[in-house]
Amino acid sequence: MTTVTTYIERLQQAADKAQSAETAYRREAATRIAALERERAFAFRRMNLMRSVAEAAKPQMADDSDPAERSGEEIAVARALALLRVRLGWSSDSETRDATLAHFAPVVIALHLASGGAEMPDETSGIDDALGHFEAWYEKAHGVSFWMLFENPMQDTPRVDF
After folding, report:
1. Structural domain count, the chain
2. Would the pTM count as exceeding 0.85?
3. The domain containing residue 130 runs over which residues?
4. Angstrom distance (rounded) from CA 65 to CA 94
5. Which among 105, 111, 130, 156 could disulfide-bond with 57, CB atoms 3.0 to 4.6 Å apart, if both were Cys?
6. Residue 132 is assigned to a structural domain of this protein
7. pLDDT on residue 123
């Protein structure tokens, strides 16, 4: 082998090593970007849902209905869970859906209590705790994040040229 051939082989090895390093970095970066993208999507889903649920869970002004019929908390829970069913597109019942709604009810109650002016040391801690317990339960029970239910895959539509 000549000195020039050895030199070119070393350059080839250095180029291959640099390419491998770049490929590994791009793979790591893509994984990290995907994780951050998922985290952002879930944070916005959480915020948007909780904003709507908080509005539904707010204590309502008294009306002419019989107060003994249902308490304000029961009405708030019913309103908020109905909203959740609509947001998830659940038009029928199942054991899984019923369990999900039952486990989400404490989140609504915490929102209802906090929005009603109930004295709490940290007004959001009860809500955070309830939501955290719900999210942990859902992930343990179903193996995926609750926020995955809000995925809206776009269906392929045929392309039509006129």
Report:
1. 1
2. no
3. 40-59+69-150
4. 31
5. 111
6. yes
7. 57
